[in-house]
Design goal:
Layout: H1 2-43, H2 46-60, H3 63-146, H4 153-166
Length: 167
């Protein structure tokens, strides 16, 4: 009974507690309001999301058909993988042959240089021999011209050898 009599006295206390609770809830409303504003700003682009999703669906609608085409192309391309490995081995073989040919060309260039040098030496020797033979020819002609009888043996034959080859 005492509780029943004291109840009206407790009402202001409860009202104060309720008001304090409301004041505390009001203080929490400001951060909640700020959070709601932030969430609203973040979700504003979601209104554009549905049309974008619909466009994506339109674009991806033919994908199953394309998948079948891709699978068919993949099956058709499988022999190309074997061909690719064969081509790689051919490429390696050609590379080896080209390297071998480069070595041989280098050797041939060396031989050509050596041959050119040797031919140059031979040409010099031939010129020297030609000068020597020319001198000998002149000597033989002078000697045979001084002989009283032009039909005389070995010198006349030497003259014929030297003079007939040039005429």
């Amino acid at each position: 009974m005492l509780n029943g009599l004291l109840a009206p006295l407790r009402i202001p206390e409860r009202v104060i507690e309720s008001l304090e609770s409301l004041a505390e809830a009001a203080r929490e409303l400001a951060p909640m309001r700020a959070e709601l504003v932030r969430v609203r700003k973040q979700t504003e682009p979601l209104a554009e999301l549905m049309p974008a999703i619909e466009r994506v669906l339109d674009y991806t609608e033919p994908v199953p058909e394309l998948l079948a085409v891709v699978e068919r192309i993949t099956r058709q391309a499988e022999p190309l993988a074997d061909l690719l490995s064969s081509l790689e081995s051919v490429e390696r073989g050609l590379g080896e042959r080209v390297d071998s040919l480069n070595e041989k060309v280098g050797m041939l260039n060396d031989h050509e240089a050596q041959l050119t040098h040797t031919v140059g030496e031979l040409v010099d020797e031939l010129k020297s021999m030609h000068q020597t033979i020319g001198g000998l020819k002149g000597d033989v002609e002078r000697i045979t011209d001084r002989l009283p009888d032009p039909t005389r043996g070995p010198l006349e034959r030497a003259r014929d050898v030297f003079t007939s080859s040039n005429e």
